[in-house]
TrEMBL record:
Cofactor(s) the record lists: Mg(2+)
Residue stretches in coiled coil: none
Positions of the Histidine biosynthesis HisG C-terminal domain: 223-295
Protein's name according to its UniProt entry: ATP phosphoribosyltransferase
Known function: Catalyzes the condensation of ATP and 5-phosphoribose 1-diphosphate to form N'-(5'-phosphoribosyl)-ATP (PR-ATP). Has a crucial role in the pathway because the rate of histidine biosynthesis seems to be controlled primarily by regulation of HisG enzymatic activity.
Residue ranges occupied by any ATP phosphoribosyltransferase catalytic domain in the UniProt entry: 64-218
Taxonomy, superkingdom: Archaea
């Protein structure tokens, strides 16, 4: 399908258009990521087709996740955020720039628990229901297995019990939905996550602006789950404190202007370690400990 709703018109050579999901479970986390990166949406936060941002050279296009790969490939959008599975389903010729580390799932082949099928080889001649007919067709062709593909628009896991299909190809993140519907996995096709993609021509023509956005998003992803610790330490206890702190490349030790005997020690640590570290740091001689969240971290 060739997109007809949106066109390349309306933006100059310095403006990039970012395509983002207009709905779905991943839409809100993506919006939050964009905001944390410093790219704030204008227009009163209204969900318009195309939304301006505080950067006059970046605009956001809201679209269906399945359409985003094609919009980016065709130049309707310069960059886009969607699932890797969507890119493969559309067979879109785009550049993959960044794994956003969200929406992780595995595209699997599953059958009813009571089925005698033990492997995909047993599915010859079977009916396979899926929202990913392109990927499914390629997978079974690569295995030399002829199946009848039943394309559905949702609730794929229900099709075997409705007599519509003998097996399904669907995304699974935790496996809970499959278990609830009494399905078991017999094979895995691909691992998917939410990724940032780019139009290949835009990568050449608007590289500087695209790199700027990639850096902003990357800094938020890198900071996720990290905390910044600051504390005062007597010089005699510095080595003991340093042995407790892992940090990125080790803690930073700085002189304190008001005291010759006390230094300031700073370190970046994983959030889940803070509870344990604070007690260890106190025992090692640290005091005046501050724990601060990190919004962005740029290397």
């Amino acid at each position: 399908m060739t997109p007809t709703t949106y066109t390349k018109e309306g933006r100059d050579e310095y403006t990039i258009r970012l395509a983002m999901p207009n709905k779905g479970r991943i839409a809100q986390p993506i919006n939050e990521l964009i905001e944390k990166s410093g790219l704030h949406m204008l227009d009163g936060g209204e969900r318009r087709l195309i939304t301006r941002t505080h950067d006059p050279h970046v605009e956001i296009l809201f679209a269906r996740p399945i359409d985003i790969p094609e919009y980016v490939a065709n130049g309707v959008a310069d960059i886009g955020i969607t699932g890797k599975d969507m890119v493969m389903e559309r067979n879109a010729d785009v550049a993959e720039l960044l794994d956003l580390q969200m929406g992780r799932a595995t595209l699997v082949v599953a059958v009813p628990e009571e089925s005698a099928v033990g492997s995909v080889g047993d599915l010859a001649g079977a009916r396979v229901a899926t929202e990913f007919p392109g990927i499914t067709k390629s997978f079974f062709e690569q295995h030399g297995i002829k199946v009848s593909i039943v394309t559905v628009g949702g609730a794929c896991e229900a099709t075997p019990h409705l007599g519509i299909a003998d097996a399904i190809v669907d995304l699974s993140s935790s496996g809970t939905t499959l278990k609830t519907n009494h399905l078991r996995v017999i094979d895995e096709i691909l691992a998917s996550s939410t990724i940032l993609i780019a139009n290949k021509n835009s990568m050449q023509e608007k590289r500087e602006k695209i790199d700027e956005l990639v850096l902003a998003l990357e800094s938020v992803i890198r900071a996720k789950g990290q905390c910044y610790l600051m504390m005062n330490v007597h010089r005699s206890a510095v080595e003991d404190v340093k042995n407790v702190l892992p940090g990125l490349g080790g803690p930073t030790v700085m002189d304190v202007a008001s005291s010759d005997n006390v230094v300031a020690v700073h370190a970046v640590v994983r959030e889940e370690r803070v509870y344990q570290l604070i007690n260890q740091l106190k025992r090692a001689g640290a005091k005046d400990i501050l724990v601060m969240p990190i919004d962005r971290m740029i290397r």
